[in-house]
Design goal:
Keywords: Lyase, Pyridoxal phosphate. Belongs to the serine/threonine dehydratase family. By secondary structure, the chain is an alpha/beta fold. The protein has 2 domains: 4-63 and 163-334, Rossmann fold (3-Layer(aba) Sandwich), CATH 3.40.50.1100; 65-156, 3-Layer(aba) Sandwich (Rossmann fold). It has 16 helices and 10 strands. The protein has helices spanning 4-7, 11-21, 35-40, 65-74, 78-83, 92-104, 118-126, 138-152, 163-179, 194-205, 222-229, 237-240, 255-264, 273-286, 293-304, 326-334, and strands at 30-32, 50-55, 85-88, 108-113, 130-134, 155-156, 185-189, 211-217, 267-271, 314-319. The chain is globular, with a radius of gyration of 18 Å. The termini are far apart.
Length: 337
Amino acid sequence: MPNVTEALITLDDIQSARDRIAGTAIVTGLYKLDTQRMIAAGFHIPTTAEIWLKAENEQPIGSFKLRGAYNKIASLTPEELQRGVITYSSGNHAQGVAFAARALGAKAVIVMPESAPLIKREATIALGGEVVLVGPASLERKQKAEELVAQHGYIMVPPYDDTFIIAGQATCGLEITEQAPDADLVLSPVSGGGLLSGVATAVKLAGSKAQVWGCEPELAADAHESFRTKTLVEWQGAQTTRTIADGLRTQSLGERNFAHILEFVDGIVTVTEEEILQATRVLLLATDIVPEPSGAVTLAVALFHAAKLPPASKIVAVVSGGNIDPGLHQELIAAKA
């Protein structure tokens, strides 16, 4: 693991990232979950706390990933931009890198798993990304990207294990502290750890008293195990690819992310596949937010696992993205409650 002191970002890093991404990534909305609208849609799920939804699906690429990707690529020198950038991603980070590279005049190569949703692959290509397909395991795409860096001299833009990426994602947390200064609890999805580590760091460094908890599918619960054992663990690709939440299938937290999580995160809760799908349906039918399953895990925790969370009167749940497969979208809308 990198030296922890060197790895941890500062509030100045986060504020610099906010200045750097201004005009590209937007300040996304924070919306209260209307329980009466839930009931009208057929959902009778008791809630005691106010739940507020941080709608990262409003970003130009439909995901929070633009924050970190743009912050990283905008920090490169003209010579580095000329060499081109490369990343490995199941979809949302791919789009963030392609979007940022196009805006900054750099070539972008994206290594994606063959199992990535077609909507995300097509969106990446539409943004100018050159897509290279590999097998489903997250380590496969990382290894292929490193191989292409060695061959062509591209600049790597990691999906999460990078201080510029973490600082960029942390701008989401900074916005939460300004939009909901009275929040007791902030919930963030966790996969490789970029968003959770960034949000938690920003919330704590900004002086908020809110606790920050990670939310993860139980079928891809490597982060939960790592946090519980205080040891960075890795799950097999065959395990993590079982979850419907395709953006949360990473096999291990990044080392820098893990250092931030150990320092600033208060807990991690896992949810079942059925709970993820139910929370996705709540968002689709009882709010104006269109989520992907990966973005609905926070609401799943808030709705179905309140007993595992600290007491809270106001919860902010980050809906990390909205790039849902159209077929799944229609299936969930049509399903009975």
